[in-house]
Write a structure and sequence with these properties.
- This protein is α/β, with parallel strands linked by helices.
- The chain has helices at 3-7, 47-52, 88-92, 94-101, 119-127, 142-150, 180-187, 233-242, 252-255, 296-299, 322-335, 337-345, and strands at 14-16, 77-83, 105-109, 133-136, 155-170, 177-179, 205-209, 227-230, 246-251, 261-263, 265-267, 273-274, 309-317, 349-350.
- Helix content is 26%, strand content 20%.
- Strands 1, 2, 3, 4, 5, 7, 8, 9, 10, 13 and 14 form an 11-stranded mixed β-sheet that branches. It has a 3-stranded mixed β-sheet with strand order 6-11-12.
């Protein structure tokens, strides 16, 4: 674990007081200094990202508990929530454990209407009062912040974990790794055949998710001829499994344990190979009886490309009502010792030690 990961806010809570937006919207984003070797893999920040991304100094007001049983201030009732698909393994496992320990705090995941689940969809549902809190893995754009400001909604983003994107391909592809330069060239649409990176003479067919423009999206070249966009990760994964030249990039917690696709290692500019799964690789024939596990030690070492990491946030409605209590309680569950351990077991890097 690098020093930056240890320092990276337990206590960093992003208070967004949209009424003061002219003074700046402070959002937590970790500063990478441990691995200069991967700087070539980091794309230029967008103007919007530069405007909202800075390291805040104000600490979190949330009390940290050792386990779910001792999390304080938990409201009683049923609370709707929704948002980023990067959180899917958390919803399917950790939320179940929270509700087992605290049955008075009931959770219901809400699918957005007519759009795919995403960080932005969760924020819109929060704005519309359809959820008590939302889950995000991308930063809001300035346009969305202006919309929230106009509606008088005050939100706070509490960072709880780090996730790492990895590249998944069809099991039949006879490749196990890419260099960072090769990966970036493929993502930018400059390499369109696996032959160019040591594979077979096979067109690269990229699959990705459609993300609403209201969120900061630094993914390159989403309008390339060899990319097809889907609304959910499961659709993209299925297409990779059916396409010999398919490629899909998403969070390791989702892709590494999949039976129908395999994930590739990345080689950084120093020649270090970062393998996203714990070795040895579990073959498809042995899955799902055995599943590959995320190699957090390697991904969180500081050698993995910074462009492929995201911070997971609980978005809290600062309305002073039960919704705020619910969001703060959920964040407290995930920041507890028990919550951080479960996040790690599910393929996410803990924020606090």
């Amino acid at each position: 674990m690098t020093h930056q990961k240890e320092v990276k806010t337990l206590v960093l809570t992003l208070l967004i007081t949209l009424g003061c937006l002219g003074a700046g919207y402070q959002i937590f984003r970790s500063v990478e200094s441990a691995s200069e070797s991967t700087q070539e893999a980091t794309p230029p920040e967008t103007a919007a990202a530069q405007a909202v991304a800075e390291k805040p100094a104000e600490p979190s007001e949330l009390a940290i508990a050792p386990d779910f049983d001792r999390v304080a201030g938990v409201p009683i009732g049923l609370f709707n929530y929704g948002g980023s698909t990067t959180w899917a393994p958390i919803r399917g496992s950790i939320d179940f454990e929270i509700q087992k320990a605290r049955p008075e705090f009931r959770l219901q995941y809400v699918q957005p209407e007519e759009v795919a689940p995403s960080s932005q969809a969760g924020l819109e549902m929060l704005l519309e009062g359809k959820v008590a809190f939302s889950l995000a893995s991308r930063l809001p754009s300035n346009n969305l912040l202006e919309e929230l400001k106009a509606q008088g909604l005050r939100i706070r983003l509490v960072p709880v974990a780090e996730s790492f994107d990895v590249a998944a391909v069809n099991w039949s592809l006879p490749l196990s790794e890419l260099t960072v330069d090769q990966f970036n060239a493929i993502q930018a649409g400059k390499i369109n055949n696996w032959r160019e990176v040591g594979g077979p003479d096979l067109p690269i067919e990229r699959f990705d998710r459609l993300v609403n423009e209201a969120l900061l999206d630094t993914r390159p070249n989403l309008e390339s001829d060899n990319i097809e966009l889907f609304t959910t990760p499961s659709e993209a994964i299925r297409n990779v499994s059916e396409t010999p030249g398919g490629l899909y990039v998403h969070t390791a917690a989702v892709l590494v344990p999949q039976c129908t696709v395999k994930t590739l290692a990345l080689v950084n500019s120093s020649g270090e190979t970062i393998i996203p799964y714990q070795e040895p690789l579990v073959p498809a024939a042995d899955c799902p009886a055995q599943r590959n596990q995320v190699n957090l030690e390697a991904l969180g070492s500081g050698a993995y490309p910074r462009q492929l990491s995201d911070t997971l946030y609980v978005v809290i409605n600062q309305n002073g009502e039960a919704e705020q209590q619910a969001g703060e309680a959920y964040a407290s569950f995930l920041l507890s010792d028990e919550g951080q351990t479960l996040l790690e077991h599910n393929g996410y890097l803990r924020i606090r030690q």
